[in-house]
């Protein structure tokens, strides 16, 4: 594949991250090499197998409905032909992480930015920034779900608003994204299931989040989540569990301005905290946790 264009590195709440040109790019599909497609196939096979009985039904069914498959790296244009008529979302190609406001504006207009390049075979299990596998395999399927699709747009609008309020509001909103869109669990009649993109695109964390005794699994509570720090360098110490996408959408429907005001003077919680008010599915043993490193 041709090389992604890095513009600079920035120190952010996600550590030092490369920032790319904000331009929307056509997916250079013809430039993917046999190795790129093989990386896709390897990851796709491995994750689909791990995710049976672990990811929520909506996620797996939507992947199938969109034709995301083992065959090779999908074409954004093919996916858009299904996604557009179903949910009004459009995938757009990008080089990688966008400046926050650009990202929010895309979501607010039902455009989902997907990194066009894929990791190398040496990076199969870990890379520090989102690539095509994370964005496409992980984020795109739930855009087919009507409630989740609306949640993502509302989040984008909320982000534009928070951007005008200040850094604390943005940090609180980012925590919400982290603990829902990226690392969320959902309670279903069959048991806890994964819907977070950061989990479904990670082999280790797909198992760890549900089966390890180490992390907490706690009921979702909006303001609690917005006050909870998180880890970017290890598996999460805490996962928050929603009881359905409606719970998420309904809880986030109100205007957040009063919440931001209220939280301005409230301390944050460590990533591994369990509070008296928490609805506890599982209290983690904390085994193997590094003591610091929350952000
Ligand atoms: N309702 C929130 C606000 O007024 C926006 C939002 C919606 C934020 C959904 C997150 C998720 O800011
Ligand atoms: Co992501």
CATH 2nd-level architecture: Orthogonal Bundle
Compute the average pLDDT. 93
Radius of gyration: 18 Å
Number of β-strand runs: 9
Measure the end-to-end span: 34 Å
- How big a fraction of the residues is strand? 5-15%
Order of helices and strands: EEHHHEHEHHHEEHHEHEHHE
The percentage helix is: 40-55%
- The CATH topology is what? Phenylalanine Hydroxylase
Quick one: CATH superfamily?
Aromatic amino acid hydroxylase
Largest sheet, order of strands side by side?
A: 6-5-8-7-9
User: How many helices?
Assistant: 12
* Count of folded domains: 1
Task: Report on the biggest sheet.
Answer: 5 strands, mixed
Low-confidence stretches: none
Globular, elongated, flat, extended or rod-shaped: what is the shape? globular
**Content-based structural category:** alpha/beta
Q: Quick one: CATH class?
A: Mainly Alpha
Which hetero ligands occur in this complex? Answer: phenylalanine, cobalt (II) ion
List keywords for this structure.
binds cobalt (II) ion, binds phenylalanine, 15% strand, alpha/beta, two-stranded antiparallel sheet, single chain, Phenylalanine Hydroxylase, 295 residues
